Amino acid sequence: MKITLVKLCIGMIDAGKAYNAANKQFVSGIRELAQQSAKDEVIEVNRNIIFDLRKFKEAKKQFDKVSEEKETALSKNAAAPRNKQHEVEEATNILTATRKCFRHIVLDYVLQINVLQSKRRSEILKSMLSFMYAHLTFFHQGYDLFSELQPLMKQLGGQLDQLVVDAAKEKRDMEQKHSTIQQKDFSNDDTKLEYNVDTDNGIAMEGYLFKRASNAFKTWNRRWFTIQNNQLVYQKKFKDNPTVVVEDLRLCTVKHCEDIERRFCFEVVSPTKSCMMQADSEKLRQAWIKAVQNSIATAFRDKGDDSELDRKSSTSTGSLDSGGEPKERSLKGESALQKVLAIPGNACCCDCGQPEPRWASINLGITLCIQCSGIHRSLGVHFSKVRSLTLDTWEPELLKLMCELGNKVINQIYEARREELGARKPQPGDPRHEVEAYIKAKYVDRRFVRRPSDEELRSKVVSLSKQEKRLSGNSEHMPPKAPPPTPKLRPGSNASGQSGQFREYSPGLQLYWASCARSLPDMAEALAHGAEVNWVNTEEEKRTPLIMAVQGGSLVTCEFLLQNAANVNQQDAQGRGPLHHATMLGHTGQVCLFLKRGANQNATDIEEKTPLSIAVEAANADIVTLLRLAKMNEEMREAEGPYSQSGDETYQDIFQDFTHMASNDPEKLNRY
User: What ranges does the record list as Basic and acidic residues composition bias (predicted)?
Assistant: First the structure.
């Protein structure tokens, strides 16, 4: 047993010696291979690339760091309140310095990228060329095969020389730009954004904006927004799938937001929701607003008729003012279309004559084809509020407004001097830019409106004031007011049989008396002549056209003024707004209309009376019910949060009933 163990031990020692000898040979072979490979071109290229990558990584670290600092500076600048100037200036200075540093680092970063790219291309091609020449020398037997590659190798050699020259030139250009930009003043620097609808990828505009979240905290987050293929989308990161904010820009409108603390804000409003966004500067805000408006106009031009769209409520512009009534309780689009097109002149587009228009401008009272409606929408809501005759629902008072005006009446006002000036009216099929130029001249510049003479204006005002006097004589419960003015011509004119103090006649005075006389054509004419919709008559207790429309008792007249931006809360010298006057006169329909349009029912007059206290004193049960119901709904919305948009369904149903009753069966409301 011992002998066997000794033999095994001797065998193990011999095997160990053999293993050590073999291991030494293996290590020697590895070392020899490493020495031979050290001269290999591929390893040499990798070594050079690794060295260049270190510089690139260092530049990338600096770029990432300064990017975070810029994001922080942008956030602080955006959050700076407009009423704290020192914070605004401090945030602006920090942002300017950070931007300057960011651009320097970006230039260095781009320079490293370009140097790395150029070296990588040239070194690899150089190694490849050396490799092929080595094979040509070494493999004599394969000379015939490799000789076919000689033209290619010569071509690669020429390309290599050109790449080296291009890389050197590019490096010099980058260094020159780097030194030039270092001397540039970035104090007024803004990102350059341009609207371009003809891009191959369909992106009309893109850039960073702050977006207000829809959660309870209403936080602001910076996102990458894109206007693409008639949609507004945004991404948190470039690799993320885009989130669609607006599926169809034709159903939207865009407006400035000046009533919040943050600066440079604007809002895109769709039929179902709204999106509040903030730009980095006023120039960028204007650029985005213009881009959205141009995209809307382009979508109307390119996509043709919308009759195949789903029946959504495209409450853009004017329809937003009316609140969200249930569709089943509003007038359907088909009946609205039939009634509006039945008015003389409405069967064709007001501006180009295209038959069967399907759109309308509700503050002008005209019908439009799809191309002209897109142009009107791009003008902005202060000129024209576009609404669909087939896709939207129509409130009764708005439908009556359309029926009392129409294309014939408006064209008599806005095209009075067209033939005299020799202007050509567009025809169906004319280029869009020609139609757009005509519409802007007609409604924005009012080039074809005939300005009245002093005598014509005086006669118009006198006629309307007399008409108002006849109407007021048949009205009961009218509060005492100053008598109509005794018209008097300006000095130098003859006015036999007239006396009284000097009075200045103006389009505002015409609008004032036309509102009380319930004459919508005269009101539209006064606005076309430049009348201010909130004009104040200082000689009659500072009353406005809207207050006179209340005294005239016409719901449609009030609707027309409100659609043209009349102030529903403007008070007279007695501290009474339109809601006060409508309550005093017992005009239930007007009270309902003003409450829907945001009238302040808590406002008090000089006698400290609110509309509710006036209605209670007069024992007007309908108005008391409306006021209390509106106040209760307002309290419920305040309890839900400052950004609550939903109203109580019972409240909406009751107000809708009163709206229909006031427009279709007003006798039922004559209980006062």
Answer: 303-313
- The DSSP element (H or E) to which 225 belongs, if any, is strand 220-228
Amino acid present at 250: R
Q: What is the CATH number of the domain that holds 593?
A: 1.25.40.20
CATH of the domain at 169: 1.20.1270.60
CA distance 131 to 144: 17
* Domain span at 223: 203-303
Tokens of 668: 């039922």
Q: Which of 275, 303, 331 is the last residue of a domain?
A: 303
Q: Is residue 32 part of a domain?
A: no
Q: Crossing angle for the helix pair 454-473 and 507-516, nearest 10 degrees? A: 20
660: closest CA among 400, 396, 398, 399?
396
For the chain, the domain total comes to 4
610-616: long-range contacts, CB 8 A cutoff, minimum separation 24:
611/579, 611/580, 611/582, 611/583, 614/580, 614/583, 614/584, 615/583
Residues 425 and 527 in one domain: no
| Residues paired with 387 in a beta bridge | 360
3-state secondary structure of 604: coil
The residues that bridge with 232 in the sheet, in sequence order, are 227, 246
The whole-number mean pLDDT for each consecutive block of 10 residues of the chain, a chain of 672 residues, reads: 84 91 88 65 65 80 88 88 86 89 87 78 77 75 75 89 92 86 62 54 83 83 89 80 83 84 89 86 91 81 49 39 39 67 92 92 93 90 88 84 92 93 91 93 93 86 75 45 40 34 73 91 93 91 93 91 93 93 91 90 91 90 87 75 52 70 65 50
My answer on whether 528 and 638 are in the same domain is yes
Do both 413 and 467 map to the same domain?
A: no
268: β partners = 254, 275
User: Which neighbouring-strand residues pair with 243?
Assistant: 234
- Integer Cα distance of 38 and 40 in angstroms: 6
Which strands, in side-by-side order, build the sheet including 203-212?
243-246, 231-235, 220-228, 203-212, 274-278, 265-269, 253-257
Cα 300 to the center of its chain, rounded Å: 16
Tokens 């300005």 belong to residue: 451
Long-range contacts: 349-356, Cβ < 8 Å, 24+? 349/407, 349/428, 350/407, 350/410, 350/411, 351/425, 351/426, 351/435, 351/438, 351/439, 351/442, 352/425, 352/426, 352/427, 352/428, 352/430, 352/435, 353/425, 353/426, 353/427, 353/428, 354/428, 355/428
DSSP 380: -
Specify whether the backbone of 493 is left (phi greater than 0), alpha (psi in -120 to 50) or beta: beta
CATH of the domain at 428: 1.10.220.150
Q: Is 647 in the same domain as 603?
A: yes
Same structural domain for residues 345 and 299?
Answer: no
Helices (H), 242-391: 282-303, 333-341, 370-379
Q: Are residue 510 and residue 613 in the same domain, yes or no?
A: yes
Q: How far is CA 107 from the centre of its chain?
A: 34
Alpha-carbon span 639 to 637, nearest angstrom? 5
* Structural domain includes residue 194: no
* 449 within domain boundaries: no
Residue whose C-alpha is closest to residue 252's, from 230, 234, 224: 230
Length of the chain: 672
pTM of the predicted protein model: 0.54
| Contact (Cβ atoms closer than 8 angstroms) between residue 223 and residue 245 | no
487 located within any domain? no
Which amino acid, one-letter code, is at 598? Answer: G
> Which region holds residue 429: left if phi is over 0, alpha if psi is between -120 and 50, else beta?
left
